[in-house]
Amino acid sequence: MKHISILGSTGSIGVQALDVCENLGLSLNALTANRNIKKLEEQIRHCYTVMPADSRPRYAVTADPTLYLDLKGALADLSVQVLAGSDAICEMAALPKNNIVLNAIVGIAGLCPTLAALQAGKELALANKESLVTGGNLVLSAAEKNNVHILPVDSEHSAIFQCVQGLSNPAEVEKIILTASGGPFYGKKQSDLEHVTAEQALKHPNWSMGAKITIDSATLMNKGLELIEACHLFQKKPEDIEIVVQRESIIHSMILCRDGAILAQMGAPDMRVPIQYALTWPKREPLKTPLLSFKQLGRLTFGEADEDAFLCLKACKKAFDMGGLYPCIANGANEAAVAAFLQGKIPFLEIGRTVWGALENLHPAGNGSSLEEILEADHLAREYAGRRFSEVC
Length: 393
What we know:
Blueprint: E1 3-7, H1 12-24, E2 27-33, H2 37-50, E3 59-62, H3 68-74, E4 81-84, H4 86-93, E5 100-103, H5 111-119, E6 123-126, H6 130-145, E7 150-152, H7 155-164, E8 173-180, H8 198-201, H9 211-219, H10 221-234, E9 241-246, E10 251-257, E11 262-266, H11 272-280, H12 294-297, E12 302-303, H13 311-322, H14 326-342, H15 349-361, H16 371-392
Parallel strand pairs: 1-2, 1-5, 2-3, 3-4, 5-6, 6-7, 8-9
Antiparallel strand pairs: 8-10, 9-12, 10-11
Helix pairs in contact: 4-5, 5-6, 6-10, 6-14, 9-14, 10-13, 13-14, 13-15, 14-15, 14-16
């Protein structure tokens, strides 16, 4: 029996992870949410309805301390312990009973729980790409020091990971081919994107995701973050990673082997597949998922990502080349810009311009060797973005 804590259970990945855990009969130690305590209450009550007593969550945690009393009152009739605050989230990541932790928190807020899980010697199913983008060296060092695995949950990184399982030596990988859907605006030029609305940007053609990652997909920032994450996970340089637009999101990513063979992981766009593989690795368990029919599919199409129209992708490559804390700067500026765009404060194209401007104008202190340096760089990027938005508005 595996015992798991799901960090970020009310988001898209967390919801699907709960479905996977229920089907596999896994035991849940803790569920955590940011501020959506209504959804968290529903999840806890569902677990109490369908799960055996020894598999139900023992903890329910909100990241917002001001919501503690509301959550505690909502769950007063159940024997679940309610906690609140960022320190409590980290405590859930490090629970002694955890066999594995699924980190599905959005943004740099997931970095401290990632480190807490690894430092406690827990296997980590990682959906929070910002952990590696902002603190790659710290995260990898913690995993190595405590002899635990980081199991990727992102569909692209899971695909690469699955392909590598078929090799006798990871060094046989010549190149990673990272696929992208292209988002809702594929084929558009920068001039076409001047007046894009949040409603339009949130209409992803293939995936149902949370608002932040959907906007990142629309700007191709998500692919830039994934490139940085892949560099850390698979020990590659950006020049060893090719980004290819695969519009149908059927090929989730590929590897080119040194003998010229290309291995691909394919399937219908269903995030439960990579979630379950991370939780059951190295085994594969049955999963009721839509099966891919090549006859109905008919064809697969490919294209190139336009880095001139979608500045965020180019900015992420630049950030990785600059090294040190610059990937953290790019991420912090983007998180601030996406939030401002969703609130109607800035236009769509300002997201990429903000990320690029942060890289050109900021000079963070340190090289990212400590958590304090990383959090300070993130703060610096958000301050820059705030000043920029006040001028734009």
